[in-house]
Design a protein that fits this description.
The chain is of the alpha/beta class and 516 residues long. The protein has three domains: 190 residues, Methylglyoxal synthase-like domain (Rossmann fold), CATH 3.40.50; 118 residues, 3-Layer(aba) Sandwich (Cytidine Deaminase, domain 2), CATH 3.40.140.20; 122 residues, 3-Layer(aba) Sandwich (Cytidine Deaminase, domain 2), CATH 3.40.140.20. It is 36% helix and 19% strand. The protein has 18 helices and 21 strands. The strands form five sheets. The protein has a six-stranded mixed beta sheet. Strands 16-21-20-19-17-18 form a six-stranded mixed beta sheet, with helices on both faces. The longest helix has 29 residues. The radius of gyration is 30 Å and the shape is elongated.
């Protein structure tokens, strides 16, 4: 269809020259700006500058190029309305039939180390989003493209049918509005973070996420699902993982992996975490990674089968050989040695993921979201320093240094267990984990049963206070010698007295760690 006009102004120039050449070959007139016009001319495309169309030069160091009635009138004018056509003719406005625009790389700019607020602001696109929105609003008459991957689709339909179908136009318009909304939400989020004192819980919030991949199914086979990530995820986030081998991750794999990875990041010493159904089933710390894995495995050798393992050191030959003895769904670590990759490579189905490790203390404060029907719960997360010196001993017996080490270990684990949660540990190894119980004594009973005879001389961590003495009595019967909990129950005195009765040291942290 000859005589049609395309306005092309892109930051991402992948494929744009070929796209413009194809349009020109079909008789389209190409209008462009700045760097895009230069790129197209170098590719042999005849280009008309926007300033030639508008009769107004690009000014303000490029800030003002396309914000002109001759541009937006050409995009917004409805071809089927006589009044619009009459007014366009009166004012010399020519229709623009296609807009290919993608925006200044604001996300890439703010991702650079040391970028200033002034630099970021200069990379906020104004004219681009405005053209995209104008074209998308008038999608019946204007084709709008924001993603270079759609160039070939548009060219194919134009070549085969002489035009782009209504269904394609509508889909492209939806993509366009999603694109500008995503872009603006990144900008508002960045600017909010720069405010003095922050603005953690604003009156309105938009959350930008971009699709990583479609998943085979959701939590259950009859549910559809996809995985999305933030535009600038932390380097140590699961969303930034690099998969080295194995099948694509499933919905449950990703959810379990996140639980394992967030827990293993709590530890400075070599640590291995095994997770099953979003709860840790075994955690171990040692002087070597292999030793840590053995502890995690032996804590619950039944549940770890088919589970997720996260480790906070490079996986070496010895650790890989140990893990290769059983079926694991996913293994995640900051790195894998060549020997480890060779050993684990023989198990083609195991998914190996490499994730950069960043200590929680240096990662900054994150946010936690929970979707509810018709709304969203938002809170800051539980990243923090653990300071045992600030814990308050409330019993006659004081905890020993060895017990403090194990209490700290158990507390880090219990924070990542579904509430009501109890963790029993000894020598930096979980012995029993009671998760997701409706009563606290029920969680203690499960953890005690798992621990068995090994429970003698162990310590216990609780994610919340003991409402009754019964949980302490179960712990005492199994041989627990020290307990850490937040305190704050109306029956604290009764619980403390029970600890004194059984010569158990009890420490209050003053902080609850519910995880629902």
């Amino acid at each position: 269809m000859k005589g049609r006009k395309a306005l092309i102004s892109v930051s991402n120039k992948n494929g744009v020259s070929i796209f413009a050449q194809e349009l020109e070959a079909m008789g389209w007139e190409i209008i462009s700006t700045g760097g895009t016009a230069k790129t197209l001319r170098e590719a042999g495309v005849k280009v008309k500058d926007v300033s030639e169309l508008t009769g107004f030069p690009e000014i303000l160091e490029g800030r003002l190029k396309t914000l002109h009635p001759l541009v937006h009138g050409g995009l917004l004018g409805r071809r089927g309305l006589p009044l619009h056509l009459q007014q366009m003719q009166e004012h010399g406005i020519e229709p623009i039939d296609l807009v290919a625009v993608n925006l200044y790389p604001f996300p890439e700019v703010i991702a650079k180390k040391g970028v200033t607020l002034a630099e970021a602001v200069e990379n906020i696109d104004i004219g681009g989003p405005t053209m995209v929105r104008s074209a998308a609003k008038n999608y019946h008459d204007v084709i709008v493209i924001v993603d270079p991957s759609n160039y070939s689709l548009v060219i194919e339909e134009l070549r085969n049918n002489g035009d782009v179908s209504s269904a394609t136009r509508y889909r492209l318009a939806v993509e366009a509005f999603s694109h500008t909304a995503y872009y603006d939400s990144i900008i508002s989020g960045y600017l909010r973070e720069q405010m003095e004192g922050g603005m953690q819980f604003p009156s309105m919030i938009t959350l930008p996420f971009i699709k990583v991949q479609d998943l085979r199914y959701g939590e259950n086979p009859h549910q559809k699902a996809s995985f999305y990530r933030e535009p600038l995820p932390e380097k140590s986030a699961v969303a930034a993982a690099k998969q080295l081998q194995g099948k694509e991750l499933s919905f449950n794999n990703i959810n379990d992996l996140n639980a394992a990875w967030e827990l293993v990041k709590e530890f400075d010493e070599p640590t291995a975490v095994a997770v099953k159904h979003a709860n840790p089933c075994g955690v171990g710390s040692s002087e070597t990674l292999a030793g840590a894995y053995v502890k995690a495995h032996d804590a619950d050798p039944v549940s770890i089968f088919g589970g997720i393992v996260a480790l906070n050191r490079e996986v070496d030959r010895e650790t890989a050989a140990l893990m290769s003895k059983i079926f694991l769904e996913v293994i995640a670590a900051p790195a894998f040695s060549e020997e480890a990759l060779e050993i684990l490579g023989k198990k083609k189905n195991v998914r190996l993921l490499e994730i950069e490790l960043e200590p929680l203390a240096s990662a900054g404060q994150g946010r936690d979201f929970k979707k509810v029907s018709g709304g969203l719960l938002l809170q800051d997360d539980l990243r923090e320093e653990y300071l045992p010196q600030n814990w308050r001993c409330v019993t006659s017996r004081k905890a020993t240094e060895k017990e403090i080490v194990d209490l700290l270990f158990a507390l880090k684990v219990v924070k990542h267990v579904k509430s009501n949660a109890i963790v029993i540990a000894k020598r930096r190894q979980t012995l029993g984990i009671g998760a997701g119980q409706m009563s606290r004594v029920g969680a203690v009973e499960i953890a005690a049963k798992q621990s068995g005879e090994n429970m003698k001389g162990s310590v216990l961590a609780s994610d919340a206070f003991f409402p009754f003495k019964d949980g302490v009595e179960v712990a005492a019967a199994g041989g627990v010698t020290a307990i850490v909990q937040p305190g704050g129950s109306a029956r604290d005195e009764e619980v403390i007295a029970t600890c004194d009765k059984y010569n158990i040291a009890m420490l209050f942290t003053g902080k609850r760690y519910f995880k629902h």
